[in-house]
Write a structure and sequence with these properties.
Helices cover 81% and strands 0% of the residues. It has 596 residues and is an all-alpha fold. Among the domains are: 81 residues; 183 residues, Alpha Horseshoe (Serine Threonine Protein Phosphatase 5, Tetratricopeptide repeat).
Length: 596
């Protein structure tokens, strides 16, 4: 057993080398503390000596009156007079002694040791136990504990790793796994990893909110809403979740009924207020909530401070002013809309179609047609298929048409182009169509109008709507060839235009050529198929069937048409002819009488 003995000696020497710096440090510390204590003791002695030196004059002064008084008064009387002086001297002496004792450093170390006993005493006790245990054990027997020590060693190592860094490493791995699951759209696995993170005590709210955004991008809005509700909680929760819910409720993307939506918006805005969330965004959302709740005046007051700073506030307040018919406020806010959106564009920020629409409405309200035109042109570039933008552009073209028509030297080609462009953009109001028809009838009185409509007659790019208007008025004027050409062009552009099919059938019927009656019937059938309830289309087909010698079918259509226009003499005359061909003289006579 020589090797264990040598190993023991080496371990002792190694332990001494490890303990030597500590012992040297302790020795120097004790030496310095002792030196400091001696210095304080010397200071204490010197303080007592100084006190004695200071007390000597006092003693002398105290004894001098006593000696003088001893000559003048009795000893008892002298004792009564000196008692207060002795008492004062005693207090002064006690004070000096207290100061000297306060300078005694041993008391400080004793008190410090007593106060820190809970810290060092367990370590000292454990060290004493280990020392006693080591001294009472034989080295040979200790070797049997090495395997157990090796087996138990990983436990404290793992515990230390987990406490000082392992938890964050595991959390990072789970967060990476959540990101992978989110990218793979494996929401079940993502939810599992989120629960694991929560078990580690990690705040997973930001991770869960990212999942809400991912679900929204994937079109799973209901699942995103459920997650956002869990994050928001019943009262106060994660602020971004509250904001997400409020924004989506106000934009009506969650399918929540209006009353419930309003209640939830107010609830989540209240939660944000409790959380101390402030700022322009919250103010805007509160204003939008008031607009949704039809509280327009309160909403206008909320938006008022932000009109000159936030474009949306200016836009919303301008629209509120229009609804409340506050023209002065509307003018001021329209100018703010113009300034805000113009600044946004100058700063390089892309405007949306809704921004351009509000801007165009503001310029239209301000009656600045040049600015209105510029805004609508830019709007059309951003969103050329926007219905409102196309209406605005059509309005501009029609205004150009009027300005050119009333100018000293109107341009026929420009008149035709502007009409064509306006009708191609949108559905033109009926009053404009009637005006175009009136101008067509007046073309014989104006060379410019005649040239303009000739340009339209030679154009193959007319919209279905314009071709139908022109074909109808040409048919009324009895210009059957031109009317037929325009109607056929309207059908080519839009084969679901029931009016165009019906008018084509009428034009073919009025031509008086029996060869085209079959084609007229085809057109009439198409019109009735597209709009079976229109009594005018049934009358057209009835007239064609009557001309084709099919009275029974004609009666069915003409009786249907009579329900819509019971006073129409032409329908009664046609029914009289149909019933005569069917041999029903009585009904024929009745309709003939009503036709007169």
């Amino acid at each position: 057993m020589r090797i264990p003995g040598e190993l023991y000696e080496r371990l002792l020497r190694f332990g001494k080398r490890l303990a030597a710096p500590v012992e040297a440090f302790s020795e120097r510390s004790v030496e310095r503390v002792s030196t400091f204590a001696d210095t304080l003791n010397k200071a204490e002695t010197r303080a007592l000596d100084v006190g004695q030196v200071l007390l000597r004059p006092i003693k002398f002064v105290a004894r001098l009156p006593r000696r003088i008084l001893a000559l003048l008064v009795s000893p008892r009387r002298l004792e009564a007079i000196g008692k207060p002086i002795r008492r004062a001297a005693k207090r002064i002496r006690e004070a000096f002694v207290g100061v000297a004792e306060a300078l005694f450093i041993d008391r400080f170390f004793i008190r410090f040791a007593q106060l820190t006993r809970p810290l060092w005493y367990p370590l000292a006790a454990f060290a004493g136990f280990v020392a006693a245990w080591w001294q009472t054990r034989k080295l040979r027997r200790l070797w049997w504990g090495v395997p157990l020590f090796v087996l138990l060693l990983p436990l404290p190592v793992l515990a230390g790793w987990f406490v000082f860094g392992g938890r964050s490493g595991v959390a990072a791995n789970y967060e990476a796994a959540i990101a992978d699951a989110r990218a793979a759209k494996d929401y079940a696995r993502m939810a599992l990893f989120e629960r694991k993170l929560a078990q580690l005590g990690v705040d997973t709210r930001r991770t869960e909110f990212n999942s809400v955004l991912t679900l929204e991008r994937d079109g799973q809005l209901n699942a995103a809403y459920e997650r956002a509700q869990r994050l928001a909680g019943e009262d106060v929760g994660y602020p971004p979740a509250h904001l997400w819910i409020v924004e989506h409720l106000l934009t009506q993307k969650l399918g929540v009924p209006a009353d419930e939506s309003q209640r939830l918006v107010e609830q989540h805005l209240s939660a944000l207020s409790k959380l101390g969330v402030r700022g322009r965004q919250i103010t805007i959302l509160r204003g939008l909530s008031l607009v949704q709740g039809k509280k327009l005046r309160e909403a206008a007051e909320v938006f008022a401070p932000l009109v000159d700073e936030v474009p949306l506030a200016a836009i919303e307040r301008f629209q509120i002013d229009l609804q409340l018919q506050r023209r002065d406020d509307a003018r001021r806010d329209a100018l703010a809309v113009r300034e805000q959106l113009a600044r946004q564009r100058r700063n390089g920020n892309a405007l949306k179609a809704g921004d351009y629409q509000c801007w165009a409405n503001a310029e239209k309200f301000l009656n600045d047609l040049n600015r209105y035109r510029a805004v609508v042109v830019d709007w059309m570039e951003v969103d050329p298929h926007n219905v409102e933008a196309r209406k605005g552009m059509a309005t501009i073209y029609l205004a150009d048409f009027d300005v050119n028509l009333q100018s000293a030297q109107p341009d026929a080609k420009l008149l035709a182009t502007r009409l064509q462009d306006a009708f191609a953009l949108t559905e033109i109001p009926e009053d404009v169509k009637l005006r175009v028809a009136a101008l067509y009838r007046q073309r014989s009185l104006s060379r410019v109008l005649r040239d303009a409509f000739n340009e339209l007659a030679n154009s193959s790019n007319l919209s279905a709507s314009l071709a139908e208007v022109l074909g109808t008025v040409a048919g009324v004027e009895g210009e059957w060839a031109q009317a037929e050409a325009w109607m056929r062009q309207a059908i080519v552009k839009d084969d679901r235009d029931a009016i165009a099919w019906n008018n084509l059938a009428c034009i073919l019927l009025q031509k008086g050529d029996p060869k085209v009656l079959d084609e007229a019937l085809v057109a009439a059938n198409r019109a009735v198929t597209l709009a079976a309830a229109d009594y005018r289309f049934r009358e057209t087909r009835g007239q064609i069937l009557l001309r084709l010698k099919r009275p029974q079918e004609a009666v069915s259509d003409l009786e249907f048409a009579l329900n819509g226009m019971p006073e129409a003499a032409a329908v009664h005359r046609s029914l009289a002819l149909a019933y005569e061909e069917l041999g029903n003289k009585e009904l024929a006579a009745q309709h003939r009488d009503q036709a007169q």
